[in-house]
Amino acid sequence: xxxxxxxxxxxxxxxxxxxxxxxxQNLINQQQxxxxxxxxxxxxxxxxxxxxxxxxxxxxxxxxxRQENGATYSRECECFKKKLxxxxxxxxxxxxxxxxxxxxxxANEKWQKDILKQAKSxxxxxxxxxFYIGGQxxxxxxxxxxxxxxxxxxxxxISYAYIKCDEELERLKQLTYEQQEEYSKIMFNLKxxxxxxxxxxxxxxxxxxxxxxxxxIINFRYLNNKPCILSSEKILFEILNxxxxxxxxxxxxxxxxxxxxxxxxxxxxxxxx
Length: 273
Fold this sequence. Notes:
The protein is α/β, with parallel strands linked by helices. The protein folds into two domains: 2-77, no CATH class; 92-272, P-loop containing nucleotide triphosphate hydrolases (Rossmann fold). 51% of the residues lie in helices and 13% in strands. The strands form two sheets. A five-stranded parallel beta sheet has the order 4-5-6-3-7, with helices on both faces. A hairpin with a 2-residue loop joins strand 1 and strand 2 (71-76).
């Protein structure tokens, strides 16, 4: 009689445990479906895989779940953020510039070899440091920065984004008061993305409103140790003269990777074609 009772208890516990496990699995599936639907709506994609296949953290689900006080909470896995950034990057103008790699960077002269060496060193020592390259037009600044972005994106589980400074400022300027939610969403992404590449930094003389927006992004990333890659026709001291608060923060973060290309027309590759 006693043995039978024990067997019944064990069977009951096994049944309860099985039901609990099934409930958890159902919740995971539900969370995944909801997140996938939101992802597709917000990003207009038809990919059924939310996370990156092979992710050892979430097994490609794209979500990390935890239970606390009987409730289940979820947050996005870094692989989901990376995949989302890859989708956005694929829509940028440099996405099709597949030739923008370290291998294809023409390092014939010493100044080019020095740039390539610095760029590769930045990738090898990538943490929360920044990379700044400024100076001569047509000297391959966007090429080398894109190669850095791609290499870090491939080697690290990190989200990344590319913007052209003046175009992004204009896009933000066009958003009306009624589009404040969209404005906040863009600014949040620019502040929090794992690695941000800002191309043609301050190509045009910025207005005070432009400076305020850029300072908001730069200062947040500066305070929160979020790396940036910046290219510009201006060397960093010229940026300091435009806005010391912005320039000094970049100067501090990029002190080990601050490249200045002397302004010589002979270095403009576009004139050699």
